[in-house]
């Protein structure tokens, strides 16, 4: 007679094989000449579900690591009027260009898109506008 553990394992494998056969059987037996059935509901893409981040969201998730007071590596801290004054004087186009494409200067570096190249240009621009608005208040 067999060991009870071996008997249980053999029964388990048999049941598992039957379940797999039931699940895969119809697919394996499908007629290759017939088109596959169309799913009842369309499958949505993740991109369609994800909404773009707002300026404050981008700041709080990415920019805060360098731009939180007191500022790291020459990054002007959020709300620091003195640190932002010379940069704002260069104009929004320059600020946006540095944020999108990166910048290296005497006051520090700005990695392209804050190091998050997966962000859209609009998301980065929103973050720049948000940070500048905090100084203007």
Report on the structure:
The protein has 137 residues and is mostly helical. The chain has two domains: 1-32; 51-136, Cytochrome Bc1 Complex, Chain D, domain 2. The protein is built from six helices and two strands. The chain has helices at 4-28, 46-49, 55-67, 81-89, 92-101, 121-136; strands at residues 103-105, 108-110. It has a two-stranded antiparallel ribbon. Strand 1 (103-105) and strand 2 form a beta hairpin. Helix 3 packs across helix 6 (121-136) and helix 5 (92-101) packs across helix 6. The model has no long low-confidence stretch (mean pLDDT 82).
What is the CATH topology of the largest domain? Cytochrome Bc1 Complex, Chain D, domain 2
In CATH, the homologous superfamily of the largest domain goes by the name Cytochrome c-like domain
C-alpha termini separation: 86 Å
Total number of beta strands:
2
Low-confidence stretches: none
Mean pLDDT: 82
Helix percent reads 55-70%
The top-level CATH class of the largest domain is Mainly Alpha
User: Which CATH-level-2 architecture of the largest domain?
Assistant: Orthogonal Bundle
- Tally of helical runs: 6
Q: Tell me the strand order in the biggest sheet.
A: 1-2
User: SSE order, as H and E?
Assistant: HHHHHEEH
Shape: elongated
Name the assembly state. single chain
Which class do the helix and strand fractions yield? mainly alpha
Largest sheet: 2 strands, antiparallel
Q: What is the total domain count? A: 2
């Amino acid at each position: 007679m067999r060991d009870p553990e071996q008997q249980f394992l053999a029964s388990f494998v048999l049941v598992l094989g039957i379940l797999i056969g039931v699940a895969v059987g119809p697919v394996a037996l499908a007629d290759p000449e017939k088109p596959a059935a169309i799913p009842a509901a369309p499958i949505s893409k993740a991109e369609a579900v994800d909404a773009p981040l707002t300026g404050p969201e981008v700041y709080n998730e990415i920019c805060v690591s360098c731009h939180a007071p007191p500022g790291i590596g020459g990054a002007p801290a959020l709300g620091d009027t003195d640190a932002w004054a010379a940069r704002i004087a260069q104009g929004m186009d320059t600020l946006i260009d540095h944020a999108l494409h990166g910048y290296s200067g005497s006051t520090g570096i700005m990695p392209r898109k804050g190091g998050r190249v997966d962000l859209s240009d609009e998301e980065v621009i929103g973050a720049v506008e948000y940070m500048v608005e905090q100084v203007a208040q």
